[in-house]
Design brief:
Farnesyl Diphosphate Synthase, 16 helices, mainly alpha, globular
């Protein structure tokens, strides 16, 4: 069986073999740029892991893996514009290196290229593959809109936030695992369990992302630290701190996330004080563990011999415990 390093090489070689060389070059250069930033390619790697787990043909599954990764990068380009994010994977974001208009168009072109990859799938699985991809793509857009809505709302519940990250992040991981099974002709019951396994892993992954934004090392994380606080994002950490704080601290949090008269450094410092008083790091770690345990329950129902499950299970364990 292939491990994540071998699968990552396979995916990167496929992208390198077909660079985007169309004209006008200003449209295509950003596509090559963001793909060259690398990353772990978590979604396509997991897709191919599932195919391999069922002894499927990796070449048959590769277009779905590339399509998922192209869609993910399309969403990153647009999300970075909406978040006004300056850094992605330690480098300038596309809209910073070029400009927002070029980034929007390049992102659109990348979405089209994702569909081109899916059209390379064999006819018997093309329709169900496109069905799950279309459903997922729309859900990701719904999640992003909810995320933006929350920025201007004074009250957001933890339940609403968890549903937002399910849509914005988790469903794409679920779809990747589903597609990996689909290309390998996995049983229908396994496809459902693979999807739910991916959802729970995705939830844990995004909650870990929230934690890393505040408590991680920017050099390791690859994104600007305290970005959620600076952008007034009501992350899980904010919502948990609000839930656990006294009236005075709640008012202070509201002021910090709405006032335009407070400097960024003061805002970060004061927010961290409230976060630490509420022990949000501990509470976030606890909910990450809950989702990871739920993921393992779905994983254990897969009708695959235990020896063939190890690579995917170990990789999901690695994701759930990303280093802070």
């Amino acid at each position: 069986m292939f491990d994540e390093r071998e699968l990552l090489k396979m995916i990167n070689r496929a992208f390198e073999a077909e660079p985007f060389n169309g004209q006008p070059s200003e449209l295509y250069e950003p596509l090559n740029y963001i793909l060259a930033l690398g990353g772990k390619r978590i979604r396509p790697v997991m897709l191919l892991m599932v195919t391999d787990m069922y002894c499927g043909n990796l070449r048959r599954a590769l277009p779905a893996a590339l399509g998922i990764e192209l869609f993910h990068n399309f969403s990153l380009i647009h999300d970075d514009i909406m978040d006004d994010a300056p850094i992605r994977r330690g480098k300038p974001t596309v809209h910073e290196k070029w400009n927002p208009n070029t980034a929007i168009l390049s992102g659109d072109a990348m979405l089209v290229k994702a569909y081109e990859q899916f059209l390379r799938l064999p006819e018997p699985i093309l329709k169900p593959a496109l069905a799950i991809f279309n459903k997922t793509a729309l859900e990701v857009c719904e999640g992003q809109q909810l995320d933006m809505n929350f920025e201007s709302r004074t009250e957001v519940s933890i339940e609403e936030y968890l549903e937002m990250i399910r849509l914005k992040t988790a469903v794409l991981i679920g779809a990747a695992l589903y597609l990996g099974g689909l290309t390998a002709n996995a049983p229908e019951s396994d496809l459902r369990n693979l999807y739910e396994f991916g959802i729970q892993n995705g939830m844990a992954f995004q909650l870990r992302d929230d934690l890393l934004d505040t408590y991680g090392d920017e050099k390791v994380f690859g994104k600007k630290q305290y970005g959620d606080i600076s952008a007034n994002k009501k992350s899980f950490l904010y919502l948990k701190a609000y839930e656990l704080s006294n009236h005075e601290s709640r008012l202070k949090l509201e002021e910090l996330f709405t006032s335009t008269d407070i400097g960024v450094n003061e805002k970060i410092e004061e927010t961290l004080k409230i976060f630490n008083q509420a022990e949000v790091k501990k509470h976030t770690e606890a909910i990450i563990r809950q989702h990871h345990e739920a993921a393992k329950q779905y994983f254990n129902m897969l009708t695959v011999e235990p020896a063939r499950k190890k690579v995917l299970l170990n990789y999901s364990e690695l994701l759930a415990g990303r280093i802070i």
